[in-house]
Structure formats: C-alpha cells, structure tokens
Amino acid sequence: MQNLPAQSTGPSTGSTVSLVNSAIEIHELNHYFGHGNLKKQVLYSINLSIQAGEIVLLTGPSGSGKTTLLTLLGGLRSAQEGSLKLLGREMRGANTKELLKIRCNIGYIFQAHNLLSFLTARQNVRLSLELHDRYTDAECDRLVDEMLVAVGLGDRLNYYPEELSGGQKQRVAIARALVSSPQIILADEPTAALDKKSGRDVVEIIQQLAKERHCTILLVTHDNRILDIADRLLYMEDGRLVSDRSE
Amino acid sequence: MPKKTPLPWLILVRQKSRLIVAIAGIAFADMLMFLQLGFQGALFDAAIKPHRSLDADLVLINPQFRTLFSVKSFSRERLYQTLGFSGVDRVSSVYISTGQWRNPKTRESRAILVWGIEPGKPSFQIPELTNQLDRLSQFRTVLFDTAGRPEYGDIGSWLWESGNPMDVEMSDRLLNVNGLFSMGASFAADGNTIVSDSTFLHLFPDRSADQIEVGLVQLDPGVDPIKMQKVLTTHLPTDVRVLTVAEFANVEKQYWAEGTGIGFIFGLGAIMGFIVGIVIVYQILYSDVSDHLSEFATMKAMGYSNGFLVRVLLTESLILAAVGFLPSLALAIGLYQVTYSATLLPIFMTTDRAITVLVLTVAMCGASGVIAMQKLYQADPADIF
C-alpha cells in the first residue's frame, strides 16, 4: 500500500497518516450539501483512521452526519474537501468509474435489507460475486452456499425475500455483503428493523465473520445493546467527531 | 468468469400478472398494426386483381395511364408493330371504359367497369372464364362479375333461376348476360363486366376502334420478358410504355398509395398502434423501475454501473417485444381469415408484413426502454439511503 503525503488544508498531524495498515484514512474532511445560498455544511474537519481488522461503532443523534460519512466511505458520493483514503486510494474528487471500482471492494449493509425481491437468497448473494471476474462458476456456487450456511440459512437457499422473516432477510444481506471477502464492511443501523434477539444474532454474525476474514467494520447504530462488540466507539454530533476513544 | 444471473428474465417472470398485462398490451398494439397494414395490403391487392388476371407476358399502355379509374388510350398500330420483333408470338387488344349498369329490378343506374376484349384471343387468365369467353363472339353478350357490389342486382341467382340468358341494360343499350365470373370490387370499380370488342364499340359509339387502353403481348416460349421489354422500349416510339404484368399492377398500386389519402390513412392507423404500444411498454418498464428503485440503487452501491442496469432494462424490453409479437402474429392470421370470409377482400399474412411488424415491435419496445431509462438515473444510492 502506498503512503502518499496527505493533501490537507491544515498542518499534517503525522501520526495517523503514516500508518501503513489503515483501511480508512480521513484527514480534515469537510462536506457540503446544496449550492450557492443554500449550501450547507454537514461534516466539519473529520479526522479518523481505522486499522485493518478493527471493529468500530459510530453513534450519535439523527442528523449528526453519520450516514453522510458512511456514504462517503462507501464510495456512494465523492469527497469534496480534505482527504479520504479507502484502502490506500484517495477518493477526493473521484469520478464515477473510480467510485464504482471501490464499491466492489466494500460490503455495504443497509438499514433495510434491500434484497432484490425477484431473486432467491442464493441469487441475491451471487449477484455480489458476479461483479468480480476472478471466480469460476463452480466457485461462485460453493462460496454462495457456504456463506448462506455461515449466516444460518442453509435450509433457506432458494427462498425469495418475501418468504423470509426480517432477521433472515438481514442475514441474507450480510451474506451478500461478505461473500466476496471485501476488506471493508460498512453497516448503517443493520439492527434497527429487528427485534432484540435477531438484532443480537445479526451483529454477532457480522462480528464473527469479520474476525475470521480479517476485515474492517464500521457500523453506525443507535442500538446500545450491541456496543460491546466494538473495538472502538465513535460519537458524532453536529457534523463533528466528538470523541474517538478506544475501549 | 461466473455466469451472470439473467436479471431481465427473472424480473419479468417473477411478476406474472404484470408480464401478462405487458404481453396483452404489446399483442394488442401489434394487432392494430397488423390489421391496418393488412387492410391496406388487401385493398391494394383488390385494386390490382384485374391487372394480375391479364393473360400476357408484356403489356403496352399509354405512358399517362395511372389507374383503371381514369384510363388513357393509345394507337392500336403500336401493338401491331411489336409483331415485327422476333420473339413476339401473339398480340391482343383490350378496351376499358366505364358504363352505366341498370339494375334490372330497381331500374337504378350505377357506374361499372367495362372490359372489351377480342374473343378467341388471350385476355384473362381466370379459370372460370375460359369456357365462357367464346360466348362473347355473339354480339351484345356480356359476362357479369358476381363479386361486385350488390346494388347491381343479384344477377347471379336470377340467371341460375331462369337458366336462360338474361336481358339487361347498360349505357342505354340492351345486352344479354350469358356468363358469370368473380373479380371483385376495388377502389376503381364497384363491379366488372366483360364484352367483346364489337359490343364495346356498340356501347360506346364515340370511341374509335383504333384507340385501345391495354395491349397484351404474348411471347414465344423461352423468350425472356425482361429482355424483350428492353428491346421493345428502345424501338417503339415514346407514346407507348412497355411493362411486365407485375409492373403494370404496380402502376395502379402506386396511384392509390401515393396519389390518394389511402396510404396515409392506413399508415396513420399503424402509427397509432405503434404509439399505443410505446405507451403500454413504457408503463410496464417505468413501474418495474420505480417499484425496484431501492433495489437498483442497492445494486449501484454494490458496484454495478448505470450502463449495466440500462442493459437490463433494454433486454427486458426486447424480451417483451418477442413474447408479445408471437401471440399477435397468431391472432392476426386468425383475424385475416375471419375478414376474408366476411368481405372477400384478399387479406393474407405475408412474410414481409410479419417482418415489418416485428421490426416495428422491437423499435417500439426499444423506444419505451429508452424513455423509462431516465427513471433509472434517479436510483442514486447516496440519495436513497
């Protein structure tokens, strides 16, 4: 991984930038919505470094900018000001093609499961592998089935989303996000729509699989019941990262 | 590389009722196009049926001749000149004019097309006529077209009932119906009659025997009509035109297609079908996209490009085109049959027309896909989540 000098507006803090093993590297990131008079800043001077294999939970009130930060990290928007490096790649001013490329290396788990309703659990998970040319057809079949067994849906392989419960759907979504072994997993309130038990199951699956595959996790949540899985807790308020304390 | 999941197909088959509505809509639009184009074709075919029935390898006409509706004549001398070329076997002349047929029962007059032929020489290739044409050598004999409008009177059954030749009046002359044939009504004529050349001149005393409308040329066996056509065209004066029978028919067809509103009217009908089809397919694709907007946005978040999703949508529309076309083809063939038995219009499915409608269907679905695509760009994962 390359270690490029930070393209910062302020003085470099040095210590965070130089870490070679960082999966996510943010420096003095600002973000705005709207144009002209309606331009409104939503993220202020975010500095954050997340190591490979770390599990980080991000909490904070609604409207604090958590989801915006997450979409920037997921390559769903391009960064405007400051520096944002994903897996060593600078994403500031990235074009659509670069964004699409980085998205293939990131597993995204949404609040709603967002499964394709016309595909079975198997087909939904497989869709994520078809983005990569490196798998053979047989490998795809094997990986998909293994992944669904790992999330406890070995007996629901050919079910359509409408035939699954909320927790099961979210588990298919997790399988979809993890099956191609992405280096970063981003999750936006994955337990919000689930009851206590399913919510707990879901985060435990995420935690366990991430440990096995050594991938980085950033999980946005309001759910106090799952804070214990984190290596580190972040708190966000009014567009700023207020605390960054390691457990 | 892994096999790709056939998304366009799976979207369609998972939503059976929507698929059925889509197929019904496309089939309906295709049916409209098939019927409009079919009626147009049938009316053209009816207009050129007499031309096609002429027994000749080549025909001579006045270059101004456009339609049977308003005929132009030329000098008989030109026809006889062709006999001087080696390869020409026989020639015969045809007079054409419009007479006034009086219905024997109601005494009402109505215009009818009169063909004056030379008895004993080749004229029409209609099987039922072969035995009857000899009867024309008897002066004041007329053969009557039973497939014409009913206003002329039910001559056919009256003739059958009496068993004897029947007296009729045409253009204030007394004639004798002594035979029946079936040619049919067209744009130019509500009905047809055939008489001998001498009867024709008796009916139309102001016509000169020397001026004919169509010259029929029969070639020796083995002579190529196209080559002979070239020879005749170069050697004959320009006051006469040499055509094959097919070209002669095409002159008539072009007159009705281009010189009148008929081509436009049926073309408009076909365009209406086309537009209805676009609207229906667009509705289907649009609701497919908006119902699955968050799912498509998720695919983009996973790393699928806009181009990929556009291809899914276009493939979906092409599948719809194919599955909608086939039932419409079967239905159209059935409806053509029904129309034929009801109207005697020569309406049949042709390969050309099937291909035309298939191409239009693909264009129709493609256009809808392109319009529905706009919605796809709204599926932006950053805005939706």
Question: What this model shows, in words?
Answer:
The complex is a heterodimer of chains A (247) and B (385). Helix content of chain A is 28%, strand content 26%. By secondary structure, chain A is of the alpha/beta class. Chain A has a domain of 171 residues: 3-Layer(aba) Sandwich (Rossmann fold), CATH 3.40.50. Chain A has a six-stranded mixed beta sheet, sandwiched between helices. In chain A, helix 3 packs parallel to helix 5, helix 4 packs across helix 5 and helix 5 runs parallel beside helix 6. The N terminus of chain A is likely disordered. With 385 residues, chain B is an alpha+beta fold. Chain B has two domains: 164 residues, no CATH class; 177 residues, no CATH class. Chain B contains 13 helices and eleven strands. In chain B, the strands form two sheets. Chain B has a six-stranded mixed beta barrel with strand order 3-4-8-5-7-6. In chain B, strands 2-9 form a two-stranded antiparallel sheet. In chain B, strand 6 and strand 7 form a beta hairpin. The two termini of chain B are 31 Å apart. The interface between A and B is medium-sized, with 36 and 25 residues.
Q: Report Rg of chain A.
A: 18 Å
Biggest β-sheet strands, sense, barrel of chain A: 6 strands, mixed
Q: Give the overall average pLDDT of chain A.
A: 85
Biggest beta sheet attributes of chain B: 6 strands, mixed, barrel
Total count of domains of chain B? 2
What is the CA-atom radius of gyration of chain B, in angstroms?
29 Å
CATH architecture descriptor of the domain at 54-78 and 101-246 in chain A: 3-Layer(aba) Sandwich
Number of strands of chain A: 10
The first-level CATH class name of the domain at 54-78 and 101-246 in chain A: Alpha Beta
Quaternary structure:
heterodimer
How much strand of chain A?
25-35%
Instruction: Give the full name of the CATH homologous superfamily of the domain at 54-78 and 101-246 in chain A.
Output: P-loop containing nucleotide triphosphate hydrolases
- Tally of helical segments of chain A: 6
Portion of residues within helices of chain A: 25-40%
Secondary-structure content class of chain A? alpha/beta
How confident overall, as mean pLDDT of chain B? 90
The SS-based structural class of chain B is alpha+beta
Principal-axes geometry of chain A comes out as globular
Distance between the termini of chain A: 27 Å
Low-confidence stretches of chain B: none
How far the N terminus sits from the C terminus of chain B, by CA atoms, comes to 31 Å
